[in-house]
Amino acid sequence: MFESVGSLAAGPWIYAVVAVSVLLDVFLPVLPSGVLVITAGTAAAAGSGAAGQVPHEVPDILALILSAATASVLGDLVAYRLAWRGGERLDRAIARSRRLTTAQERLGDALTRGGGALVVLARFAPAGRSVVSFCAGAAHRRVRDFLPWSALAGLSWAAYSVALGYYGAQWLGATWLATGVSVAALFGAGAAAAFLMRRRPVS
């Protein structure tokens, strides 16, 4: 069963595909970047010998994490800079959305207090990364307040996603079942993050 997964994730081009997908999903949150990262992690497990050897070149787990994390930070910064220069038009768009206005206020307070854990938590929530990046830029928060938390968020998300695919394949075998269970765990983390963000401010 893994041959079909391995053929999709084999070769050095997978790092570029992962990076582009992760970078763009700050603008298009519907992109399945998490699914792609997990699938590549599943392929990496097979190549390690943990899930059986396959006749494909397979991704390196550390390179996968670094490419996904780097692309995540770059995407955040692009969204941040676009929002920073968005001017009155973007401000009006945010003002029309109660959710975006609340997110902007909470993010500003959190970054001011040094509580940028909100940025990390939002990285796992559906569309949370987009909201946080655009709101930080629109509110003209200092890049030195935002960037370290964005880097931690990207690294945490990338490591978690790759680990899901890797260890899921070790426990369940390099099959579509393992990938499906890992994707469900990623969505579960996203639902938990969204719940926590709604329940109370993150300090």
Properties at a glance:
mainly alpha; 203 residues; 10 helices; 77% helix; single chain; disordered N terminus
Write the layout of secondary structure elements.
Elements: H1 2-9, H2 13-24, H3 33-47, H4 61-84, H5 87-95, H6 98-112, H7 117-124, H8 128-138, H9 143-172, H10 176-199
Main location: membrane
Keywords: Cell membrane, Membrane, Transmembrane, Transmembrane helix
Subcellular location: Cell membrane
Provide a descriptive summary of the structure in words:
The protein is elongated. The N and C termini lie far apart (45 Å). It has 10 helices and no strands. It has 203 residues and is mostly helical. The chain is 77% helix and 0% strand. The chain has one domain (32-44, 58-199). Mean pLDDT is 78; it is low at 1-5 and 50-55. It comes from Streptomyces argyrophylli.
Give a brief outline of the structure.
It is a multi-pass membrane protein. The protein is mainly α and 203 residues long.
Helix content: over 70%
* Percentage of β-strand residues: under 5%
Report low-confidence residues grouped into runs of 5 or more: 1-5, 50-55
For the report, how would you describe the main beta sheet?
A: none
Subcellular location: Cell membrane
Pfam families: VTT_dom
Membrane topology: Multi-pass membrane protein
InterPro entries: DedA-like (IPR032818), VTT_dom (IPR032816)
